[in-house]
Predict the 3D structure of the following.
Amino acid sequence: MSQSFVMVGAIVVLALVVGTIVGVGWFSGHAPAEGGVQPVEELQLVGLAEAGGPPDKVQFAGDRIPAETVKPVPFNAKRAMGYLEAICAIGPRQSGTGGMKKQQDLIQEHFEKLGAKVVFQTFTAKQLSQKKPIDMANIIVSWHPERQKRIILCSHYDTRPIADQEPDPRKWREKFVSANDGGSGVALLMELGNHMKDLKTPVGVDFVFFDGEEYVFNKTDKYFFGSEYFARTWKAAKDRPDYKAAILLDMIAGENLRLPAEGNSWFRARPLVQEIWALAAELRCSAFQNKVGERVMDDHLALQNAGIMAIDLIDFEYPHWHRLSDVPANCSADSLDQVAKVLSVWLQRVK
Ligand code: ZN
């Protein structure tokens, strides 16, 4: 996800009022990426005010299994942190490099051992600023692949070639392991994988790791190669899975995690936002804030544009974003735990 693509939206505390966005515009003056968002004039913030109360019937999962019959999985957040450290110990995992190959092997071995079906969706991508195209791969890890009705939990897994938020540009090319941005989603899903085989859910679940989200060298380069390829391929397939919803994880492990409802999720997949934030309130996962945050251009937009109800869980206030200090020591087991708790209960309640 990129600063260039962050829209300044109104941040409306407590989501109780009907407001108007002022000052909508691109931070950097960039045009939106393909399929970008339209400016929205009015916010009607009613749903989030109800988070904590019972969600209404028209929401995503409709008649759900009551909360008291559903428990979170025994997610081992310490072990998840161990996975995060192992991923970062590889070093940078930039698309098309040896570090990425090592990570792909690690992911494949991990999930195959746990009994999931692992498929590499390979493609080539040419970045505008680069001379040659490179090979990329999304990894699709499927639980109960025979089920037609499915859910996507996804994250990008590549890291950015340069740490371009370091104030001193001489540091941009130093070793950048990008723990929270690119590592945290992988680590959470690796740990969740330990609980997926026995999870009582009627849906099939695909963990999708997107390549080419961070393969960016300058301001005019393109983002989201992997998610766009995935969405296009899904849309064109005859016998495609019936994806009921998708949740993107991006920077979900920072200390003092803050997850306002990301703006593009709120505007374009509101029933799912309401569902997830209401559940978080019920489970007392306080990282999920009862407010609407910035609109962020991220991998979920490609899914939304293909017609999948998709939201982004993202902490855009993470102070180490695109800095050399984005290391496991600045991430927190409690943050991973809160997100996993909400996801694991939700997966058992969807129908
Ligand atoms: Zn990033």
